[in-house]
Design a protein that fits this description.
This protein is an alpha+beta fold. Helix content is 40%, strand content 23%.
């Protein structure tokens, strides 16, 4: 916990340097302290749950095991926005899973967000025909082509290094999961996007792991447990599809893996790494920023006599 407090202090101090300038940053120690205290207050206010959880007012059921804890939509928004620095979302998620014994302020914390995209029934006829090596090349090109736009929108450019886990589709359960290794511009280490999709009658449950690549084995090992915890309720299941009344999605499994590049999405959705890598953005470059601040302190101490507050 102490390590994470140091990281948060460095992050906020760097923010003060950028927004206020070095001179004013020295006068903003109280503001920094208040921000950190507010983060601790928010973290303490989170209401963790276990057992059976209703998702989306009867859409699906989540049975949280002893290995995890669940945060509802409001608390998930607090974590993503107030603790991990993401912009507010247009629509709240269905919640978040965090490994038992961790909190969002732990430096090694990883989490799984739960969302629902109601774009219609996704046909899975193409699942066994997909060349995932070729799909990877297409995704890498798409990302490279849009990096300039990412920079214009204020986001770091990134590279899709490859599959951390090649997509796997369980045709019987209609569940799909895969993992991407992403390299974010300016970051020391790679970011892991571990994606789980569950196909339903009218849309797709989207479970996305927020983690570091070094945590892949841990998450991969626990994926079967996560998959077993959540499923659609009767009436919303894949088998409940009625072609006479239900809408069919305009994309299949390949586009689902590629990040929904089908007609339904715009540029921001194409750049799906934004929110998932945001926690990483808070922590990346901490050593470099820390060294920068240390040099400033050293230079300041050598030139002036100042007292520590």
């Amino acid at each position: 916990m102490q390590i994470m407090k140091i990281k948060l202090a460095v992050f906020f101090f760097a923010a003060l340097l950028i927004t206020a300038g070095w001179g004013r940053a020295q006068d903003n120690t109280n503001a920094l302290t208040q921000q950190m205290q507010e983060m601790v207050r928010v973290a303490k206010s989170l209401k963790y749950q276990q057992g059976e959880i209703d998702l989306g007012n009867g859409l699906a059921k989540l049975t949280v095991t002893k290995d995890f804890r669940y945060l509802g939509p409001d608390d998930t928004e607090k974590v993503l926005v107030q603790l991990w620095g993401n912009p507010p979302s247009k629509s709240k998620s269905l919640g978040m899973l965090i490994p038992a014994g961790m909190t969002p302020l732990h430096s090694n914390c990883w989490a799984v967000t739960i969302d629902y995209s109601e774009d219609g029934f996704v046909k899975d006829g193409d699942a066994s025909k997909i060349d995932y090596a070729d799909l990877l090349k297409q995704m890498q090109k798409s990302i490279a082509d849009h990096n300039e736009e990412r920079r214009k929108q204020g986001y770091p450019a990134f590279t899709l290094v490859g599959w951390a886990a090649t997509p796997r589709y369980d045709a019987a359960a209609h569940k799909l999961y895969w993992a991407k290794d992403l390299r974010v511009e300016g970051a020391e280490g790679d970011t892991l996007n571990y994606d789980i999709r569950m196909l339903g009658r009218k849309g797709v449950l989207e479970l996305n792991a927020i983690a570091d690549v070094s945590q892949f084995n841990e998450i991969d090992k626990q994926t079967p447990e996560i998959l077993s915890m959540v499923d659609f309720k009767e009436g919303n299941r894949y088998a409940d599809f009625d072609p006479k009344v239900d809408k069919v999605a305009t994309y299949g499994i390949a586009a689902l893996v590629a990040g929904g590049i089908a007609a339904k999405v715009g540029l921001f959705k194409l750049l799906w790494v934004g929110i998932l890598a945001a926690k990483k953005f808070i922590i990346i470059g901490i050593v470099a920023v820390g060294a920068f601040i240390k040099r400033l302190f050293g230079r300041g101490n050598s030139n002036t006599n100042s007292t520590n507050s």
